[in-house]
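Listing 4. Sequential folding, example run.
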Amino acid sequence: MAANKLDQEHELIARIVAGDEKAFTTLFFNYLPVLQSFALKFTKSDIAAEEVIQDAFLRIWLNRDKLESVENVKAYLYKFVSNECLSYLRKSLRETKILENARLNQQTSSNDTIDTINLNEINALVTVAVSKLPHQRRKIYLLSRVEGKNIQEIAEMLNLSTNTVKNSLVSALKSIRIYLVSHGISLVILYFIVI
């Protein structure tokens, strides 16, 4: 920088330190083009680069008394702008993580809701299918699946042979599966459901 320009800049700085806003505006516009392209390399956004520079210059204004001891104004301004760029990038990264976590949580809860709805639908269909079973078969199914009784216990309770209970249970399960499949529940899903 030429001696004359350097003197002008020192004079400008002295006025800024004294609180001269016009001098500060001049400094801002003198360095805006180079600082803007510098900030743009970091932020990859014109709007973000503008915000970064405004924040940097606000800090410079608030700390203008420190300008007195500054030897290289350009380097000083670059330091402020690069600090603001780093803050912007950190904040941006945090926001991206927060949004990503929110999206994942929403997706998970949405999937849970869908799973719950599907399970509720299947349970409702099973209830209807069970209600359509012949009386004894229905009783055997309920004792086995709802009350958790084993074949031997059911046979003793109903005074039936274990073979009769076993065959009735197999027939009941087959009827329920056929009913569910006829209502669009795939066989793959049935493997994961204890009917």
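-- end of first protein; second protein begins --
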Amino acid sequence: MFVGHYAAALAAKAAEPRAPLWSYVAAAQLVDIGWSGLIMTGAERVSFDPHLPGSALVLEHMPWTHSLPGALAWAVGAALLARWALKVPPRAAVFVGAVVFSHWLLDLVVHRPDLALWFGGPKVGFGLWNIPVAEQAVEIGLLAIAGAAWTAERVRAGQSAWPAAAFLTFLVTLQIVAMLLPPAGGTVAMGANALAAYLLTTAIAALVERRARSAAACLRDEPAGA
């Protein structure tokens, strides 16, 4: 799963808008941001099998990011960081942590059994990757539902719908590009490419939200009857 993870970010933004959009977007892929760095250093390991359906990834060793206790630790750390560094309300900080943990739950649906229930414990995964069409349908479907919820929340709050439309368009485009590009040549290249994609998406989220706030401020400051 790739952009489907961002469905959790959009749903959280709709339910608890007091945290910045970029923080939810970063939270949705925080586990994979850590994973990208760790596979580049060799602390976690991945290989490729082009004969596998859906995804060629063979996720051999990733206890620090994709084990159940590892994911919980990332989630708690993110919630505490959001509360301390971003000064968001406690409820918003909890939502940030929940978005981080959602990554493991969504991976559980699509991954083959490679998610450890505890360090060195049995590995689980429902394997929807093995049915590529169904996996893509679930991924885009989740994104569409969450995007619709976020858009509806903005409209109810008297805000413009264009930021939601713009960001969703970017995410769908990113998914198409990721599907068409050939696999990266090696784990270091893959880790670097993945990390760049996650950071770019976070930056786009921050830019979209900033532009939306600027546009709203301009409308508020516009003289009546202008």
